[in-house]
Amino acid sequence: MSSALYLSLRQRAAACASAMLLSAAIVPGALSAGALCVLASSASAQTPPDRFVESISNDVLNRIRSDKSVQSGDFQQVSKFVDSAVMPHVNFERMTALSVGRAWRQASADQQKALVAEYRTLLLRTYSGALSQVGDKQVKVRPFRGDAGADEVIVRSEILGGRGDPIQIDYRLEKSGAAWKIYDVNVLGIWIVQTYRDQFAQEVSARGIDGLIRSLSDKNRQFEAAPRG
Q1: Which of 57, 58, 52 is nearest to 173 (CA)?
Q2: What pLDDT, in 10s, does the model give residues 211-226?
Q3: Whole-angstrom Cα distance, residue 16 to residue 14?
């Protein structure tokens, strides 16, 4: 994965930080990362998916705005925040598997574990700097027009506030027992899973699964070592 491509993904992810983290539950939310753990009762798959997203997003926004350490982008605090608030609402193993593509089935259990860990770190480091941008941004969840009884649905929303036009943010949700879980996010018409899948496929083709793991690890170390503005 080239440095230019990696930077492009970081820029796109910054726009979508509000989506991945704070949208693990969809609610008038905001732009950047989230906190979705408290609403186990309202996370029921019997709840309409748009309402599910809406209620959790509000909780996420409120928690981000009240936690200065998370807003600062401190990686350790963001990581704890995501584990407690976001991961319960995200099928991250499925998201990783879809992003890796066919190579996922060829990977050993240890390789799959490493891919999940490095991919999670990549996304966290990419999104953490956007947490300070929450400000007065809000997420407008569009009325759900699909079949709420389906096992997989798409919920569409927009980020409002600040300069420029609204930012389109959509979520792919799946039913997981009695809950909804997010497994993909669409920013401005591009699904994050597909974006990474194309690049990961190139890496696997050139260097194999271990090469992809090393590449992700290298990018994470580069990000950690980069000066903060």
Answers
A1: 52
A2: 999 999 999 998 877 7
A3: 5
